Amino acid sequence: MSFRLLFLGPPGAGKGTQAQLLASNHQLLHLSTGDLLRAEVKAASPLGLEAEAVMNRGELVSDALVLAIVRSRLSNHEGGWLLDGFPRNLPQAEALDQLLTELNQPLHKVLLMELNDDELVERLLARGRADDNETVIRHRLQVYREQTAPLIDYYQARGQLHAVPSTGSIEIVGRAVEEALKAA
Questions:
Q1: DSSP for 26-58?
Q2: Alpha helices in the chain (DSSP H)
Q3: What is the pLDDT of residues 111-142, one digit of tens each?
Q4: Of 29, 57, 89, 133, which is most buried with the most CB atoms under 10 A?
């Protein structure tokens, strides 16, 4: 089966790592909005400079920009895919639903990567990225709770949400992800 998946969870829960592994193992298009935005920052494009200022404050870039990126990538793709880092809030989830209906590519499952705050902060500080310091990380976790966490109820009400504990090695979490894919 060719999956169409969405990864949810706080920053540092392992979404990107597990999404890369899953995409490779199942030949899925992996759309990481964070990676796409960081590429713009690295290129120092006008969009990248704007995105960098927003990300360095621990805030989120505009919905319209992220949706446009997702639309352009999915509109020419016929196989399975997974989204990592989008949607981040209810308006984006609704816009994504509309886009997927237009493209006739319904979402199969939403995998919620779960991990406690102390482990999240420790993981993010260990990455050593310029935009990862404890103040920015704690702000990002607060933004997640306010804006992204409501998506848990949204997708759970639709019967699409599958929680995945993100504690343990990459391999242990990977097995939990594969089990969630097999769940009804």
A1: HT-EEEEHHHHHHHHHHTT-HHHHHHHHHHHTT
A2: 15-26, 33-42, 46-56, 63-74, 90-103, 117-127, 134-143, 150-157, 170-182
A3: 999 999 999 999 999 987 877 789 999 998 99
A4: 89
Cis before residue 87, ω within 30 degrees of 0?
yes
Phi/psi-derived region of residue 109, left when phi > 0, alpha when psi is between -120 and 50, beta in every other case: beta
CA-only gyration radius of the chain, Å: 16
Q: Is 81:28 a contact under the CB 8 Å cutoff?
A: yes
CA 4 distance to own-chain centroid: 13
Q: pTM of the prediction?
A: 0.84
The sign of the torsion formed by the CA atoms of 115, 119, 124, 128 equals negative
**Per-residue pLDDT reduced to its tens digit, 65-112:** 778 778 878 988 889 999 998 898 899 999 999 999 999 999 999 999
